[in-house]
Amino acid sequence: xxxxxxxxxxxxxxxxxxxxxxxxxxxxxxxxxAIYGRVWDxxxxxxxxxxxxxMAPLVIVxxxxxxxxxxxxxxxxxxxxxxxxxxxxEDGEDNNAE
Length: 98
Description:
The protein is of the alpha+beta class. It has helices at residues 2-24, 29-36, 42-48; strands at residues 39-40, 49-55, 58-63, 69-75, 80-86.
């Protein structure tokens, strides 16, 4: 059990460093689009996705158009969401939120 606990703490520390790095040098929409392609603001996010939860700098979502589950990255200010990655599920599981 102690090993599992330390892995979770390491994961949290990695996410916090990742978030701090992204937010130290936030990009405007055009810069994010040049790197990641499609970018959403908060209104667009709620239009296109069902949000299941936040674990900064990630947000877990289901795309309303395709019903595919995945994650997006986000930066704090200006608040943009980007880099949708479809969830990789176990063999035999369907990436359908239904």
